[in-house]
Amino acid sequence: MANIPTPHNAAKEGEIAKTVLMPGDPLRAKFIADTFLTDVSCFNTVRNMLGFTGTYQGKRVSVMGGGMGMPSVGIYTYELFHFYDVDNIIRIGSAGGIADNVQVRDIVIGMGACTDSNYASQYCLPGTFAPIASYGLLSRAVKEAERLKYPVKVGNILSSDVFYGDDGDALAKWKKMGVLAVEMEAAALYMNAARAGKNALCMLTISDCPFTGESLSAEDRQTSFTQMMEIALSLA
User: Which residue windows are coiled coil (predicted)?
Assistant: First the structure.
């Protein structure tokens, strides 16, 4: 342990579990803590990026918001891995479905995360890094979904740096390559985990489909993705 509390996280040593669930929205973190966890304590309110630790089916687990975009999730996950000795971070987020067979409320698990970001440039690698999930978490998540009879789709996702992009054809080009959905954080999470020698997984519930215009409300995104939450909690 070193450098804690951090400028972004008020938690003290031992207040965060080895496995952290990370929605983007801190209010979704609070919803998970209120709905699924017992013996809950709040370890962070800095910048209103709420974090909680509690117990789920006898296992200690934490949940904390990660914000929007790779710079934000990059900061929080780096600190969790390096300063708080967290072993597993499971992103549970929302995404836009771009493949034809992906519909609103479907659960997508990101086996790999394509990106238009230059996040990997910091590592000064002699080539292109492919951000991927940790197989152990991925395999367990698929098995748990099967046990719960919650259908999931597993494949490539896109982590984009832009929400309002200027290239109107960008998503269609990624769709041609078999990408299932677009979000904004997984690639940075996967790279941080790889660099730290830790484990990461991104699970997504489809909140909208850009090609059809179908979309869920902000409240639905905050409180209704319970199947994904249950799968993730079981991995703790």
Answer: none
The C-alpha atoms of residue 171 and residue 203 are separated, in whole angstroms, by 20
Domains and CATH numbers, the chain: 19-234 (3.40.50.1580)
Rounded-to-integer distance, Cα 22 and Cα 213, Å: 27
**Is 208 considered catalytic here?**
yes
3-state helix, strand, coil in the chain (%, to 5): 35, 30, 40
Q: Is 208 annotated as a binding residue?
A: yes
197: DSSP letter: T
Residue-wise pLDDT tens digits, 88-143? 999 999 999 999 999 999 999 999 999 999 999 999 999 999 999 999 999 999 99
Q: Determine whether the annotation assigns residue 221 to a binding site.
A: no
Catalytic residue among 39, 85, 208, 220: 208
Which residue stretches of the chain have pLDDT < 50? none
Whole-model pTM: value is 0.96
Indicate the SS3 state at residue 155: strand
CA distance 140 to 143: 5
* DSSP SS3 for 33: helix
3-state secondary structure 78-107: HHHHHCCCCCEEEEEEEEEECCCCCCCCCE
